[in-house]
Amino acid sequence: MTTLGETLKQLRKQRHWTQEQLAEQLNVSRSQISKWENGSLLPDVQSLEKLCRLFGVSADFLLGSEARRRELLREVADQYGAAGVSDTALTAFSYLLQNEEMSAAIYALAKLPDKKRKHVETMIATIIKECSELL
């Protein structure tokens, strides 16, 4: 399970923000962000609420309490006969649950005709692969 600090740092870096930029948005000091990220201090409840709103995630996600969600996803997979659902698929599904814009885009993609959908899927996969290699 990831810690709040690791999750916070990952979310901040995904947005290409410095600790100073995040601190300004939350009206706290940069050193406070640093302490949150290195685990020497936890945010107060008001700051936790602001972080959740800013990043569009739940407190459970931010605090690393996804164990129950994973159990529920596995139960759903078992219920629908997809017992072979991988952790990768569960992680992707969890990501989509946390990101409504991406969920809507994937839903729209799924409705495209096969030939167009496959073309777009290839483009998306290539973009993601190239971007992840750059990071």
Share of β-strand residues: under 5%
Unreliable segments of 5+ consecutive residues: none
Number of helices: 9
Measured as a percent range, the helix fraction is over 70%
Protein structure class: mainly alpha
Structural shape = globular
Give Rg in angstroms. 18 Å
Q: What is the succession of H and E elements?
A: HHHHHHHHH
Q: How many β-strands, per DSSP?
A: 0
Mean pLDDT: 83
User: What is the straight-line distance between the termini?
Assistant: 23 Å
- Main sheet makeup: none
Describe this structure in words.
This protein has 135 residues and is an all-alpha fold. 75% of the residues lie in helices and 0% in strands. It has nine helices and no strands. The mean pLDDT is 83.
Give the helix/strand layout.
Elements: H1 4-14, H2 19-26, H3 30-38, H4 45-55, H5 59-63, H6 67-79, H7 87-98, H8 100-110, H9 114-134
Helix pairs in contact: 1-3, 2-3, 6-7
